[in-house]
Amino acid sequence: MNGFISPMLAKPLPEDFSPESGEWVVEEKLDGHRIVVQVTDLQADLFGGRLVTAWSRYGIERPLPAHIVEMLQKFPVGVYDGELLVPGERSYGTVVIENSHLLVYKMFDVLNIVGKDLTVFGTPATYQERRTLLREIFRGLELDPDGRAYPVSLGWSYAVTSMEKIRELAKEVWAHDGEGLILKKKSGLYEPGKRPRGVWLKIKQLRSEVLTVIGFREGKLGPNAIVLLRDSDGNETKVKWKNYDELALIDADPGKFIGKKLRIEFQERTPDGGYRHPRWDRWEDE
Questions:
Q1: Residue 218 domain-assigned?
Q2: What is the end-to-end Cα distance of the chain in Å, rounded?
């Protein structure tokens, strides 16, 4: 039985967001690979062990190292959502073979438990209800829900009622070179494969750099929908069009924009000099 459930995604934090309703909690935005795990005893092996199957965010089956599988086999039959990562490293360290023994699975949601679908497609449970269930599962396995040393652990979650507290937590995460925060609404439901408005919100630290336009590439919206860029050190990257107005101007005379300076925002530089998650900010002469 394929138990893959397309994971729910987060929207960027709106500028006018306020957590004062008491409806929000904050979790760390982990920098690894999003993994959905199914634990089932429908295909138990000769020794009575449970089968553990894992998928990437896009539904591609993903093998897990033995030390993680062994712990997941102790969990109740169900489908779980979390992040596979190497503590202290970026997501690209997750696929380095030499790091396989260092991988951990940070679980932060339960989507199905003993056949009961907890998403909007079944008997919906709120974030708070799902989180409480997860903590009960960890306690039932005699695992400290707040422990950090296990191959499978539960990510932290703090209630917040002010932007001041959110900024404080964000600074703490960035201080240890973390990626950011995810705000989750306590009454929010899990919508597989969706990025619903006002349920999960993300905060990431962005950096800025000015690069030179060197050309265009065809995209879904035409021959110039992707802007090709190069920095002063010769590193190249690309960004999508910003909006329809900008795209129309480029389409009218692409050559006019070659050599123009474009400021981009990005998450970080990669070891090979690339730009991680680059996006169009503004023309430098604006």
A1: yes
A2: 55
In a domain? residue 9: no
| Proportion of the chain above pLDDT 70, given as a percent | 94
Using a 10 angstrom Cβ sphere, with 0-12 exposed, 13-18 middle and 19 or more buried, the burial of residue 134 is: buried
Q: Say which residue the tokens 């935005």 belong to.
A: 29
117 in the same domain as 82: yes
Mean pLDDT (the chain) is 91
Q: Compute the distance between CA of residue 110 and CA of residue 82 in angstroms, rounded to an integer.
A: 9
Instruction: Give 163-187 pLDDT, tens digit per residue.
Output: 999 999 999 998 888 889 999 999 9
Cα torsion 209, 212, 214, 220 to 10°: value is 40
Instruction: Indicate the pTM of the whole model.
Output: 0.79
Phi, psi (5° rounding) for residue 154?
Answer: -100, 125
Q: Indicate if 169 and 35 belong to the same structural domain.
A: yes
- Structure tokens that stand for 262 in this block: 């474009």
Q: Could you give the number of structural domains in the chain?
A: 2
2-12: pLDDT as tens digits: 689 999 999 99
Alpha helices in 39-146 (DSSP H): 66-72, 127-140
Token pair for 186: 């306590």
Q: What CATH number should be reported for the domain holding residue 245?
A: 2.40.50.140
Q: What is the pLDDT of residues 79-116, one digit of tens each?
A: 999 999 998 877 767 877 778 899 999 999 999 999 99
Q: For residue 167, give the nearest of 127, 205, 197, 206 by alpha carbon.
A: 205
**93 and 182 together in one domain:** yes
Whether residue 152 contacts residue 138, with contact meaning beta carbons closer than 8 Å, is answered with: no
What are the residues whose beta carbons fall under 8 Å from the beta carbon of 45, sequence distance 6 or more?
A: 51
